[in-house]
Amino acid sequence: MDSENIKSLKIYFAAGMIFSAVLGTLSHFFYEWSGQNPVAALFSPVNESTWEHMKLVFFPILIWSLFLPSRLRKNFPAMRCALLIGGLLGTWLVPVLFYTYSGILGRNLALIDIGIFYIAVLAAFWTAWKLRDSERAEKGCPVILFFSAVMVLAFFLFTFAPPDIGLFAEP
């Protein structure tokens, strides 16, 4: 790839990380700010459960992947699916890191919880960067799209009907 395309991609990634970090941070409050609007509940945490906080990573990256410029899409055909893979990884990194550290400490700390969110966003974009030219990511795109759709449906369903397991309980 020529340096102009890489430069454009770096700008797109930097903007995406900032967008995802800011939107994820703000969306923590959207449900309350909206007066507990059910539409806001679909995309924003409705409580302090780990599951609900996974939305903070997933939806901003999903939205950002929809704004992939056509020139970048043409030059990096695996890019959208690479972002979705990164988004799925970052989303699931939230409970892995949360339950690991809180299990070790025996409690959770807000500052570490916030750090986990930013680590998850960085991990998502780092993964997408690594997979930007991946033929496997490009060929596996239908499966990645399927798992992304399953996550959207699960977030929507479990927002209003959460299973009675720890991931969905408030700490």
Show the helix and strand layout.
Blueprint: H1 3-33, H2 38-43, H3 50-66, H4 70-75, H5 79-105, H6 110-131, H7 135-139, H8 141-160
| Secondary-structure element string | HHHHHHHH
How many angstroms does the end-to-end distance come to? 47 Å
Regions with little confidence, pLDDT below 50 for 5+ residues: none
**Main pleated sheet:** none
- On the 0 to 100 scale, the average pLDDT is 95
Shape: globular
**Would you tell me the structural class of the helices and strands?**
mainly alpha
Total count of helical runs of at least 4 residues: 8
Strand-residue fraction?
under 5%
The count of DSSP E runs of length 2 or more, i.e. the number of strands, is 0
Helix content: over 70%
Compute the gyration radius: what is it?
A: 16 Å
Structurally, how many domains make up the residues? 1
3D architecture notes:
The model has no long low-confidence stretch (mean pLDDT 95). The protein has 171 residues and is an all-alpha fold. The chain contains 8 helices and no strands. It is globular and about 50 Å long. It has one domain. 78% of the residues lie in helices and 0% in strands. The N and C termini lie far apart (47 Å).
